[in-house]
Amino acid sequence: MDDFPTAVSFLRGASDRAADYVAGLRERPVAPSDAGHLPLPRPLPESPTSGYSALDDVFAELEPHTVASAGPRYFGFVIGGSHPAALAAEIVAAGWDQNVALAVMSPALATVESTAAAWLCDLLRLPAHVSCGFVTGGTMANWTALAAARHQVLADAGWDLARDGLFGAPQIRLVVGRERHATIDLAARYLGIGSSQVSEVSADAQGRMEPAALAAILRADQQPTIVCAQAGNVNSGAFDPIDEVCRLAGTHGAWVHVDAAVGAWLGAVPDRRHLVTGWEAADSWAFDAHKGLNTAYDSGVVMCAHPDAHSAACSVTAPYLQTTGGLREGSHWTPESSRRARALGIYAVLQTLGRAGVAEMVGRCCDLARQFADELSREPEVAVLNDVVANQVLVRFADSDDVTEAVTREVQAGGVCWMGATVWRGSVAMRISVSNWSTTERDVDLSVAEILRCLAHVRS
Ligand SMILES: *Cc1c(COP(=O)(O)O)cnc(C)c1O
Questions:
Q1: Less crowded by CB within 10 Å, the N or C end of the chain?
Q2: Does 299 sit in the ligand 1 pocket, CB within 6 Å?
Q3: What is the pTM of this model?
Q4: What is the distance in A from the centroid of ligand 1 to the CA of 285?
Q5: Which pLDDT score is estimated for 36?
Q6: 287 and 260 in contact (C-beta within 8 Å)?
């Protein structure tokens, strides 16, 4: 295993396996069938094996236990597939194996990152001066943005966080919607902001922050304040009234962060971008490329309208960390130092689809969510619980928690499609998230038929 021909044979073997897997995604049962026979764990080998085939044997044994979440009929969580351009980028990035921490380590990737950042700003109509970090996902995008926010609101209150730390600092108030994503609380916990410093704004029936309640909280006192708005609720797909949130927060000097892990990409769709009206006035944004943009895992993006606060939260210097001056230094904008070429997948999808192609892909997922809602709501005993404004549908059966749970479990076991369950406003609901570039109207028809088959079975 000491020469490059060996590496090439491994790479070709592995890409053949990956390609064969992708070729079968449409037919493959979505959920693994024989969960009882996992080939691992096994003892650590004492000695090396030569050649790819021994490794391939293990991959072959593992493959039946994968979930076909990259395929067209996986509607669980919010799981994007891998667009062909994103898959290509993964393979090339594997061969290149670039560390994108510093431009001197990869001028190619420094320019890919700066181009992808500029294209994202253009596509999503954000101000051109925003800074951008390529992170693992929405969680770290939220963390990074809130770290920048923490730095800035404390600086505005006369506190030097970098020098004096958090102990003894003015209290920060984090204002969140009741239906925020759980990772906002996680980011707060990482950042030393306790739950008693979090103020919840009540939400309407769709899960949107209520502006009057936000105004009342903002008026109540004048601590350094960060407001987290949400573009795309993980259950209902609903968008907070971002325009109004930014206006209210602006009059109180608060920082506005927009968690757009789900909804960002609707900002690229001409007849849906009204949902993010006014978001260019926010201070930071979190996006998930591995959701609606259909890059491979893992890929999130943080954007910040205050580059100095962003780099104050993330950048490191040391004599050996050579910078170039001209090119982008990727690690100044992320919590990580060494990183893989994550932006290459984003670049590749944007390069391949262009503005119109992204709008078409994201818009189609929303249209297919609408198709689910229309077809299901025609049936007796099926209720759609949300306004389907994006790619998310919430469905309840026979107005019963038990029936809804039973139908969801039966659909999951069937292998035709996969949906998860949630609790929405006190009731169990099936969640349908349409987030895959390869899903078609026929996939929706097949899935609706399967849901109705399971419902009939549960009811009989
Ligand atoms: C998915 C999601 C996150 C977390 O993103 P990860 O990519 O899982 O880290 C944060 N916020 C919202 C609204 C999400 O839907």
A1: C
A2: no
A3: 0.97
A4: 12
A5: 73
A6: yes
Compute the distance between CA of residue 308 and CA of residue 442 in angstroms, rounded to an integer: 49
- Residue from 297, 374, 321 nearest 136 by CA: 297
Q: In this structure, are residues 276 and 239 in contact, taking their beta carbons and an 8 Å threshold?
A: yes
Task: Please choose, from the candidates 130, 150, 180, the residue with its C-alpha nearest in 3D space to the C-alpha of residue 254.
Answer: 150
| CA R_g for the chain | 23
Distances (CA, A) of 433 to 76, 95, 208, 273: 6, 33, 18, 19
Q: Which of 181, 239, 342, 435 to mutate to test the pocket of ligand 1 (most atoms within 8 A of CB)?
A: 181
> Measuring CA to CA, which residue among 361, 358, 353 is closest to residue 435?
361
184: closest CA among 164, 206, 209, 205? 209
263 lines ligand 1 (CB under 6 A): no
Answer whether residue 33 shows pLDDT above 80. no
Distance 11 CA to ligand 1 centre (A): 32
Cα 286 to averaged position of ligand 1 atoms, centre (Å): 9
Is residue 399 left, alpha or beta, with left meaning phi > 0 and alpha meaning psi from -120 to 50? left
- Kindly report the protein residue whose alpha carbon is nearest to atom 14 of ligand 1: 261
| Residue whose tokens read 């304040």 | 225
Length in residues, the chain: 460
Amino acid at 54: A
pLDDT in tens, 170-179: 999 999 999 9
Dist CA 111 CA 450 (whole Å):
47
The amino acid present at 199, given as its one-letter code, is S
Q: What percentage of the chain carries pLDDT values higher than 90?
A: 94
Distance CA 256, CA 336 (A): 24
pLDDT of residue 53: 96
Confidence of residue 35 (pLDDT cuts 50, 70, 90): low
